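Notes to self after the Tuesday call (sharing in case useful).
The group wants a holo model before anyone commits to mutagenesis around the pocket. I volunteered. Ligand is pyridoxal-5'-phosphate. Logging inputs and output together so the record is complete.
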Amino acid sequence: MTELMNKNLLQLKPSGIRRFTALAKSVPDCAMLTIGEPDFSTPAPIKDACKAALDADKTHYPPNTGEPALRAAIAEFEAAQNGLDYTADEIIVTSGATEALYTAITGVLNPGDEVIIPTPAFGLYESIVTMAGAVCVFLGTAPDGFQITPQALSAVMTARTKLIILNSPNNPTGSVCTQESLQAVHDAVAGKPVFILCDDVYARLVYAPCPMFARYRDLRSQILVVQSFSKPYAMTGWRMGYLMGDEPVIRQLALLHAAAVVSVAAFSQDACIQALKTDITPMVETYRRRRDYIWDRITAMGLPAVRPEGAFYIFPRISQFGMSSEEFCTRLITEGKAAGVPGTCFGAEGYVRFSFCYEMPAIARGMDRLEAFLNRLQR
Ligand code: PLP
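Result:
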């Protein structure tokens, strides 16, 4: 019966990240550096707010776009934190950034539209664009240090371009778009019928200033911003995020969100109000120490990499070893007992992603194993 199913759906493949994680788990004592989620527990005050909401019987359908109190708190937070001017009516509380991305991407695309995805990129974008029957146009940024140049952008923009997806800080590289990169995008889309989707889920996990595309308020009607509670507050399992945009666009997207999920869990929304009040500096400082350590180790091994300025990944180049990134990662797991994710999972051959969402001894063990593996390869 599968042949009768949606033809776009039949093109989707399972995530390569999970495949490599499964392979690594099948090797006893493998040092895993594959996972993209905080190793911290959700801070206690956030959990307490959820428990209190349950005790107060917040167990009924909330409004489709989210509790007014949470949307007001998000609007206030975004103004103070990022200088954005979205009102509560321009925010949809979603089931993680994943649903926000799905709602935004499928909500703006028609079959045949082109979507520019700078690569390396989070694999979910391609799946959702494919589901929408639209066309992914990949813009390789590796030759430009993972930045977007006006020349590279103009080479891929066409009259069919409907959407550009930006992800800064980036999964998998940890790099942050420079103001020049953002200006290149700004100048390419100003006055054109093109949406810009800013996947800013790592915006709070930064080790250097992070310019934000959403601050171009002259493009307000073209911009959609996706945010998540998962990464900054160690809340991946809660599945909470939000989508922001200009009111007429958000009003329309709210219908799609309502059709898919009605609304997200009522009691979790109180927890999110508490999350926005949480000081995450200690977690960010921990990631920064790990970033410094893994950067020192990777560069000491002679692996070329861009220094991560955000998120919790590093993405060194391994093409100099004369094998594909899948072969490199398979051999690293089976011969070296350490695991990363091949660059092909992010549309970038010749690289490996290592995550530093692990405690320092686990990162050190992974780096020791990588170093020993490279030494054997070079012998
Ligand atoms: N966007 C990026 C760039 C991500 O790396 C992830 C998760 O890894 C997501 C979105 C999805 O986040 P959420 O847990 O909020 O669905």
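Two things stood out.
Residues 77 and 276 are 7 Å apart (CA to CA).
The chain has a mean pLDDT of 97.
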